[in-house]
Write a structure and sequence with these properties.
By secondary structure, the chain is an alpha/beta fold. The protein folds into two domains: about 220 residues, Rossmann fold, CATH 3.40.50; about 70 residues, 2-Layer Sandwich (Alpha-Beta Plaits), CATH 3.30.70. It has 13 helices and 14 strands. Strands 6-7-8-3-9-10 form a six-stranded mixed sheet, sandwiched between helices. The N and C termini lie far apart (about 45 Å). The relative contact order is 0.15.
Length: about 350
């Protein structure tokens, strides 16, 4: 049986904004491949290079080195053909707030060359699918944030693409709206056979939605696989110790580091996260050692590996720390490109 052509391929993508000593690296040899018909997640903190990757794959930017393909087409050699195959939903709203939801969708279809009657039919289909029929004739600017985000996704689907790119699709949404959009994204792959690439800095979102994912840090992929594969590969447990006095952080880190069976230790927000081979066996010794050192705990627990632990293992820092120390918001990568022109 022939192996299907990957829906998306990135090979050693390198990209920097600016020139010479002022150049800011965004991608430093990023590679991954996506099989057709799945939700694939690019998970990484702010400034990791996710948005730059999507801009290259959607023909909006060119890499300095490396190659990118969508459905077997080189995005640099065949940008027009690639654009007809893909849908793209950026982080920023793409709809006209002074037009109705229906008008936005029909216009999007007409831009892609869809005849007017077919555009109206497709718009009605998508409005029903995303539960937007009732407000369809109201100005989109009056809709809730969750409804507006659904409209953005529907606009990306008007021309029936093979591959849909969603750049941070649920940023800013409340929990209920986020869950609703998650359900729609999952259905796109499961029922329609659409390949969906989404970028996210939400660990829970990647764990919940992605059939496979690539974890990105500092412009490169540091780990790839299914969420379960990545977590299972670590083995062991994580001991999470909340300190009653954050000033004890370094002292507590030194104490934990001297205990047999304790591996990588990360301090974050007045708490320590320690990788251990067997949480149940090591925890009594941890409690005894911290108590003997006069270090009081506000809370303590043992957990199985999470995607945060996966990131910590491969990047050498916690995801939360990386997100705070990132190069900026996800949009910053696009802003850098504009500034570098």
């Amino acid at each position: 049986m022939p192996i299907p052509t990957p829906a998306i391929e990135a090979e050693e993508l390198t990209k920097a904004y600016g020139k010479g000593s002022k150049a800011v690296p965004a991608l430093t040899g990023l590679s991954f491949s996506v099989e057709p018909g799945i939700v694939f997640g690019l998970l990484g903190p702010n400034g990791a290079g996710k948005s730059t990757t999507v801009r290259i794959l959607t023909t909006l930017s060119r890499p300095d080195r490396g190659r990118a393909r969508v459905s077997g087409l080189d995005v640099a050699e065949h940008p027009g053909r690639v654009r007809r195959l893909i849908g793209y939903v950026s982080q920023k709203p793409g709809f006209d707030p002074m037009a109705t939801g229906l008008e936005n969708l029909v216009l999007q279809g007409r831009i892609h060359g869809t005849p007017a009657r077919d555009a109206r039919s497709r718009a009605a289909e998508l409005l029903e699918r995303f539960d937007l029929t009732a407000p369809a004739r109201r100005l989109a600017g009056t809709w809730s944030g969750g409804m507006q985000r659904k409209l953005d996704v529907a606009m990306g689907l008007m021309h029936r693409p093979r591959v849909l790119f969603l750049d941070e699709p649920t940023t800013g949404l409340d929990p209920e709206a986020r869950l609703e959009l998650w359900a729609e994204i999952a259905r796109l792959a499961r029922q329609d056979g659409l390949t969906v690439l989404l970028t996210t800095h939400y660990l829970e979102e990647a764990d919940h939605l992605a059939a496979r994912l690539a974890i990105v840090d500092a412009g490169r992929v540091v780990a790839a696989g299914t969420p379960d594969e990545l977590k299972s590969a670590l083995g062991g447990d994580t001991i999470q110790a909340g300190l009653a006095r954050p000033s004890d952080t370094e002292k507590a880190r030194a104490v934990l580091g001297s205990i047999a069976g304790v591996g990588t230790i990360v301090a974050e927000g007045g708490a320590l996260h320690a990788r251990v081979t067997n949480g149940a066996a090591v925890l009594p010794g941890v409690l005894a050692a911290l108590g003997a050192a006069g270090i009081d705990l506000a809370a303590v627990g043992v957990a199985r590996p999470s995607l945060d632990d996966v990131y910590l293992h491969h990047a050498g820092r916690s995801f939360g720390e990386a997100d705070r120390l990132g190069a900026g918001s996800p949009a910053t990568e696009a802003d850098l490109e504009v500034a570098a022109r």
